[in-house]
Write a structure and sequence with these properties.
9-stranded antiparallel beta sheet, 21 strands
């Protein structure tokens, strides 16, 4: 209802609509619950007459006072106030029109509370969109660009740091999960980016193909899987982004674009395939495949000295290998695997202990001692570790005893197994946890390892012991070849392009075994200190780059500036990324605080309690003018 200001409001009082900080969807009746993270929409009774707005007096005074002022010759002042009121009313009408336009064309969405896989990150998202077609996704991104509304692409929400989380808006590709085509001759697969890894693998199996490598879990969507530079282990196998040969992006600045390694400008493609979703929303991805194959895996334990002696041989002899270092012990768990010949008979599994109860016996014995009230009947390895750590997760001597019991479990668990590669390379990561993983270059290839990989681990373990850090097991170490993607943590950017590169990945961990908020907060602070000490002691020396799904945005301004400097010094391609981003997403609508704070424009980082960034959405420019008018009117009245 638009009427003249004088007819709607009392003389001397001007009332305008101002946006609240709720960020809710105006005018929407309560909806039914949908999705695994669904929450109820606001009820009709909770919504004010002017949706998502409240009324605020912007200038005081009453009719009698104004009349007195006019009688004393203050007509000029009254004229100015009337002019100001009409200006404010016009601006308010423009605000309403802009808001109405934004709401009328907004993509279908709902409010969602989203938590990540490890339970360490949560976000109340005001606009969670799940388009059912690529066209609907393109319209949603165009809307976000037009109205300057953040709409961050999200995959399966697995990242420990919540890399895709954004309170204002998120767009999920979960419903865009179809297999597009399989080219057996070219050994490639094209899929919509919302397809989950485990589902894609099953669709490839009838074609005799599989992906070149796998991360520890297979719940990721393909888009997120490649965008964060996910990796498995294998000194001659690159991270998954390097296996992407082409992709289709929906970008805010250029609409739909198709990029490939055959483009005249492959640099743009290489940046876009590993950009943490900040250059465009991937809708289709084409990946190189390999023939489906079984792996024969062997697990054994070694001392630190034995690892140092045999490392070069083991790294060369195994297609896939990883070490699990157990802090405060002299035990390293080695897990290596190689392809089984297609004609070979699948061997039966072997184990040092036939009985599962015998394997976990050391852990059960310790649990009965430190927590006699806990019934360990039927508990497996992971649950036993959680129960043990729950007793006193930050006590150094207790954690040492837990690690010693775990080392004995692994000695009893030594053995072999054989299965398809996707089944062997995936493994149980444990319960809720904090994890910090880095990568660094340790040679041009597996035959020219500089030894930096073991030197790093030697220094890290020494730091843990010197600082008395209650570090649980394991510290996992893996390897990969390099990537041509400039923003991959295993990038070969700046090195001889004819060399594949050899990179080591190392991840530290602390578990969150208890739901108690105080315990979780204490562990979180201890882990932050642990990771900070690792960076301070080893970061510059080894030129480490943090996994994009595990890097955190520091809280302090100075720490953020230092983090940006580190990224700029360790990724030669950052300037090129920013130049291309200014073209593909000039308003930063696909970003969030993490992206802007570390890679993008730090001025766009939201401050605590701020609903939107300072670059403002349409209508917020008008609101800023209204705030200025209110201050000016208050000053004039004084």
């Amino acid at each position: 209802e638009l009427v003249r200001p004088g007819a709607l409001f009392p003389h001397g009082v001007v009332v305008v609509a101002r946006r609240t900080a709720s960020g809710g969807r105006a005018g929407v009746a309560a909806a039914s619950y949908k999705g695994p993270f669904a929450t109820a929409h606001p009820s009709k009774d909770e919504i004010m007459r002017f949706a998502s707005r409240h009324l605020a007096v912007i200038s005081g005074g009453d009719g009698a006072a104004d009349a007195g002022a006019r009688a004393k010759g203050g007509g000029g002042s009254g004229l100015h106030l009337r002019a100001l009121r009409y200006l404010v009313a016009a601006l308010a009408a423009a605000e309403v029109a802009l808001w109405a336009s934004s709401q009328a064309t907004a993509p279908a969405a709902e409010e969602q509370t989203v938590s990540n896989w490890s339970g360490t990150q949560h976000v109340d998202c005001a606009r969670y969109a799940q388009p059912e077609s690529a066209d609907a996704l393109a319209r949603a991104v165009e809307w976000a660009h037009t109205h300057r509304r953040r709409l961050r692409p999200v995959g399966s929400a697995l990242s420990p740091n919540g890399a895709a989380f954004n309170a204002e808006g998120m767009i999920s590709l979960a419903l865009l999960d179809e297999l597009v085509r399989v080219d057996r001759d070219a050994m490639t697969v094209t899929t919509q980016a919302g397809a989950r890894v485990l589902e894609l693998v099953e669709k490839l199996r009838p074609h005799g193909l599989t992906l070149a490598n796998y991360a520890s879990i297979r719940e990721q969507q393909i888009g997120g899987f490649t965008q964060v530079g996910a990796h498995g282990t294998g000194a001659r196998i690159p991270p998954l982004d390097e296996t992407v040969t082409s992709l289709e992006l929906v970008t805010p600045g250029k609409g739909r674009v198709r990029l490939s390694e055959d483009d005249d400008d492959p640099e743009r493609f290489r940046l876009a395939r590993c950009a943490v979703g900040s250059l465009g929303v991937a809708t289709e991805v084409t990946l190189r495949c390999v023939p489906a194959h079984r792996l024969l895996e062997r697990t054994w334990t070694a001392t630190r000295g034995e690892v140092e002696k045999n490392h070069d041989t083991w790294l060369k002899e195994h297609q896939h290998i990883r070490y699990m270092w157990i802090p405060h012990t002299d035990t390293v768990v080695v897990v290596g695997s190689n392809p089984l010949a297609a004609s070979a008979k699948v061997p039966k599994p072997t184990s040092a202990c036939k009985s599962e109860a015998k394997k976990v016996e050391p852990m059960v014995k310790l649990l009965k001692e430190v927590a006699p009230g806990v019934d360990a009947t039927g508990m497996g390895f992971g649950q036993l570790r959680d129960e043990l750590l729950k007793v006193n997760p930050l006590d150094l001597e207790h954690v040492k005893r837990c690690n010693a019991a775990e080392a004995e479990f692994w000695r009893r668990n030594a053995g072999t197994r054989c299965d398809w590669s996707d089944q062997i390379l995936g493994f149980d990561c444990g319960g809720e946890q904090h994890v910090y993983e880095i990568a660094f270059r340790t040679g041009d290839d597996v035959d020219s390892n500089t030894g930096a990989d073991l030197a790093y681990m030697k220094e890290l373990l020494a730091m843990i012991e010197r600082e008395g850090i209650p570090a649980p097991a394991p510290i996992e170490q893996r390897w990969s070849a390099g990537s041509k993607s400039p923003l991959s943590p295993a990038t070969n950017d700046g090195h001889d392009p004819s060399k594949p590169g050899l990179h080591s990945w190392i991840g530290i961990i602390m578990y969150l075994p208890s739901p108690d908020p105080e315990s979780r907060a204490a562990i979180t602070e201890a882990f932050k200190s642990y990771a900070k000490k690792e960076e301070a002691a080893l970061g510059d020396k080894y030129g480490i780059r943090t996994h994009w799904a595990k890097i955190e945005l520091p809280e302090g301004d100075e720490e953020r500036r230092e983090a940006r400097k580190r990224i700029e010094s360790r990724y030669p391609g950052v300037d090129r990324f920013r130049k291309i981003r200014a073209e593909l997403d000039p308003k930063g609508v696909l970003g969030n605080n993490l992206i802007e704070g570390l890679l993008g424009d730090p001025k766009r980082v939201l401050r605590p309690g701020q609903s939107r960034s300072d670059w403002m959405a349409p209508g917020e420019y008008v609101e800023a003018a209204l705030r200025w008018a209110r201050r000016a009117g208050a000053g004039h009245g004084a």
